[in-house]
Specification:
Length: 553
Amino acid sequence: MSASETAGSARGPRPIEEVAAALGLAPEHLIPYGEGKAKVRLQALDGDRPRGRLVLVTAITPTPSGEGKTTTSIGLAQGLALLGERACLALREPSLGPTFGRKGGATGGGRASLVPADDVNLHFTGDFHAVSSAHNLLAALLDNHLHFGNGLGIDPRRVLWPRVIDLNDRALRHAVIGLGGPIHGVPRETGFDITPASEVMAALCLAADAEDLRARLSRLLVALTLGGEPVTADDLGAVGSMLVLLKDALRPNLVQTTEGVPALVHGGPFANIAHGCNSVLATRTGLAYADWTITEAGFATELGAEKFFHIKCRTAGVDAACAVVVATIRALKHHGGTAPGDLERPDPAAVEAGLPNLWKHVDNVHRLGKPAIVAVNRFAADGDDEVTAVLRACAARDVPAAAADHFARGGEGAAALAELVMEHAVHPPRHFTPVYRNEQPVKEKLVHVAREMYGASGVAYTREAEKDLAFVERLGMAGTPLCVAKTPASLSDDPTRPGLPHGFEVTCRRFIPAPGAGFVIALLGDVLRMPGLPKAPQAAHIDLVDGVVVNLR
């Protein structure tokens, strides 16, 4: 396939039917969904197709603004397309929480963006609403069961299933419901998580098909009885209705980049409070139709990449040919000790002082058994001497690296990075080297992750975590993967410790069994599953002017 046929950069965005045809999807596999987007029927995966290569895009420890993994993923896919390769993206859907919060939209930027960007950033095809509705339906059925006699003997003090909303709203973290008298239900304490933290979202993203999703939903743990026995979604008769709400959300979404490269955008779990990867179905679809599928895992290697391999790759039976570690000059300065207000000031010495953080993330990729390629995501304010300092340091360590200015130049700006990926990707991929085995005890698994991925000296456990662990073991879930939730702002569990912290111990506050997702969540430090808005949220700037969305960035 020629570069012009794949990228379509000269013509701009193409009709979505043309994008699907270029990828090899048959017309009957496509369900047009408004202008410029479509759902892909699950039947597109029927048959035995050869698999292309999967490339993981991860990053160093980010600043609050993020380091551009999505932008780099898009630029890399466009760079591969310009080199004549059949490329496809497999990315997560943006959450309204960060969109209206601190970060803004999550569709890339400049000439390395998804289109239609506003649609993808906002309600898109309704997947997040479907997940929220299915999750909250289960909560409503549980409270309804309590109201009408509580035949299952549920202990109202031990209801484990919160509600969710896809917004940052700290006021909803803790709530009391059922007040106002008997007609309003049974009073009890509860709260809200953000939708990307929902176990329904994790189940959707890890499901192999509709029947696998049904099985995962049936295992959702919602409460304990007065005798301490588990109550599931299946016990409440909720599974069929939940599956109906999710029937369209299970299908991957197809859009394109600014240069016409196909992009499967599906699912949206956060990597600091969930497993942080797009759906298994979207990734498998990309691998079945493209030579190269570019995917990302949220935040840095110790969060997103670790879970990508231990949870997603094991669940889906896929593996990556290599991993791209995204670094920015501003983040390296941050890790080198530069104050937040001075990150735009040229300072090669500060860049070099921040390199130990980059080396740790490169080492993490190598520890997982994968080739690492550093991508310096260039910003307009970056000095040539600063970028050169990073590239020279990488060369001295024999780490392949390229500067990429795909934001300004699209695929052309990422062509050098694409060439490095083609050179160093291992095909067929060697199986990743796990940090832990599922059958190891839970504490043993966590200490391996903490020591090898974070650089911690060990793990401390609260009394609540010890009680949780006994419950996890009683449920028979000790042999499942770990999904560690912690701050993304540091390799430690303390967000005030950038760079490469030394001599620290992480604290496990709670263990949360997630049988529908198929893993156990470990909460480290003060991480929250419902974020709050910043003092100056993006929501204060976004507007609709003459029918056009403005300041959604």
